[in-house]
Recover the amino acids of this structure.
């Protein structure tokens, strides 16, 4: 059975920067959870950041690939550089995926760790820009497909191809 790495906040875990969750009530996630496929993970917490914590954004909205190549940093709203924690969390997510033979993930869209299509632009003004979070970029570099919680039909189609 294929296992799926999933953002812990989507599973109701209170790990977000504001101490909350973004619990998904999607039927597909509920089915996959009941089947024992889901492996919840929060790269920011695993990287050593507390809950709650200041919001963080990738400098200039540059995206996760820029952070991985040291061309951009992840900064918290209080001005602190949290890049090391984001990199550590991304590496932990990749290690877990490899050790569990995970080939796909469903991660929280918009997050500086988990965003797949967009991230916030680094201004802390609520504006998004196209790009990936740090963890998503690292997972995809390793061949692990990442889907946001708003693309679960695509994720289900991909899962079917993996199980053939």
């Amino acid at each position: 059975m294929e296992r799926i790495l999933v953002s812990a906040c989507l599973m109701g875990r209170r790990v977000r920067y504001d101490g909350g969750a973004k619990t998904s009530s999607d039927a597909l996630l509920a089915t996959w959870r009941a089947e024992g496929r889901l492996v919840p993970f929060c790269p920011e917490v695993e990287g050593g950041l507390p809950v709650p914590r200041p919001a963080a954004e990738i400098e200039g909205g540059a995206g996760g690939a820029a952070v991985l190549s040291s061309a951009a940093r992840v900064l918290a709203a209080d001005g602190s550089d949290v890049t090391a924690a984001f990199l550590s969390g991304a590496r932990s997510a990749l290690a877990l995926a490899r050790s569990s033979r995970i080939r796909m993930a469903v991660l929280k869209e918009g997050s500086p760790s988990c965003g797949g299509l967009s991230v916030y632009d680094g201004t802390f003004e609520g504006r998004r820009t196209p790009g990936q979070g740090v963890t998503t970029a690292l997972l995809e570099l390793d061949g692990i497909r990442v889907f946001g919680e708003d693309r679960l039909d695509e994720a289900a189609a991909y899962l079917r191809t993996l199980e053939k």
User: Anything to note?
Assistant: The longest strand covers residues 4-7. The chain has a mean pLDDT of 97.
